Amino acid sequence: MSSLTDFNTMFHDLNRFITLQSGKLSDRKKYMGHFTIIMNAICNDLKERSELFKRMYHGIDYSGSYRDNLKVGKPNEYDINIKMKFVKPDKVIVGSAKPGYLKINITELLEEMKMLTGYDRAVKELTKLINSEGLLLQNKWMAWSEGIITSTFAKVKQDLSAEYNMSHSKQGPAHTIKVASITDYTVTFSIDFVFGIMLDLTKWIATRPIPESIKTEDNYFTAIPKPNKTLIGQPNPLWIASYPAQDHNIMHDKNRLKDSIRFLKKIRDTQGIENLKSFYIKTVVMLETDKRPSLYWQNPIRTVLIDMLTAVINRLENGNIPSYWNKNFNIIGGFSQDQKNDMVRKLKKVKGVWENSLDKQTIISTILPLSETQILMDTMGLETETGGPRRVFSHQFNNEGVIQGDPEQSTSNLQVLMELLQSLKGTASCLVVLLYSCQY
């Protein structure tokens, strides 16, 4: 029978494994180099193609899992907010709409812009995106951005055709560019981006007050043109309020908070719970910060993870995950009862295994897919279903996720691999060990 200490150690090993799966530092640098080439080409062309874009462009923001260091898997997906800022932000009127949404009136802004030298074409473009009340329509904003992005992508794809194969698609407000390097077949990644409008904190519309600690650090929030399914094909002045900079700050210095989110995302992927979006998981865990002291996040990962899994289950059973920043906005309000029940059922099954099973492989398999379960079991020197008692080898992951031998011993990594091959039974286990050799 395994002790509580054993299980805490196992979850610690699991946490390290999941973190290392997010990629070596060298991988991150390599992917970032390719990403920078693509995004620089896109943004430079957009500035040439649209005077409005040129006047509003204010750089890019990393958002989602990449920004918050919550990625599971390789660093091959980038969520980007292309920051757009009005030239006279104090002349913009931001009003509350339904919970979680806002309206942007730029009547006064346009009058100011007309008096600025060199802004004629930008004013002309922007004027086409409002209604008779001066409200900026997000459906027209998306149509405008899609038009210039489509043209830009065609040019960038041609210009970089010797280096990359690329494709472009759009879903909701986000544009997706998929990239495959021609010169390095191991490099494939995707970039999801939106044109988000930066709004000063003086325009704050959230029900939760601005945290004092971040008023001087991240002095803006973002309006995102997310389509409203009930207004398809109709003028839509409602923009969703997004707070990526503030989210990031709330999670700062709470390592177990981030660890638990990565775990829950991994469980979601392994259990096939497609409807449980990363944003929902992050929101539930952030809401827990209201209930728990800072020292709580220093508990063993097993303790925090069980608490956070329970919190997600409870929120889904109640049918309400309120936005962290706008408590009256239920971010899962669009789900059917069947969808919520399916998520609860699968998560309760995982929790039941954790509470009732003493078998480490069974517990690990609720979190990792079979191939990764095998790798971790081999690394931990534990018995698996595909082999007999496992001898514990003197190898471990280093900081870049590469298996390393004990420096006190003369056994090489290759010799360790050969020992593993001789001790393992079954094709699947051998294939797993052969994959290790790709690190050398």
Instruction: Report the order of strands and helices.
Output: HHHEHEEEHHHEEEEEHHHHHHHEEHH
What is the count of DSSP helices, taking H or I runs of 4+ residues?
16
Radius of gyration (Å): 25 Å
Q: Which spans of ≥5 residues are poorly predicted at pLDDT below 50?
A: 384-440
Mean of pLDDT: 82
> What structural class do you assign from the helix and strand content?
alpha+beta
Query: Can you give the helix content as a percent range?
Result: 40-55%
Q: How much beta, percentage-wise?
A: 15-25%
Shape: globular
How would a textbook summarize the main sheet? Answer: 9 strands, mixed
Let me know the number of strands. 11
Distance between the termini: 37 Å
Written description of the protein model:
With 440 residues, the chain is an alpha+beta fold. The protein has 16 helices and eleven strands. Strands 1, 2, 3, 4, 5, 6, 7, 8 and 9 form a nine-stranded mixed beta sheet that branches. The chain has a two-stranded antiparallel ribbon with strand order 10-11. Strand 6 and strand 7 (188-200) form a beta hairpin.
Question: Brief description of this entry?
Answer:
The protein is of the alpha+beta class. 46% of the residues lie in helices and 15% in strands. The chain is globular, with a radius of gyration of 25 Å.
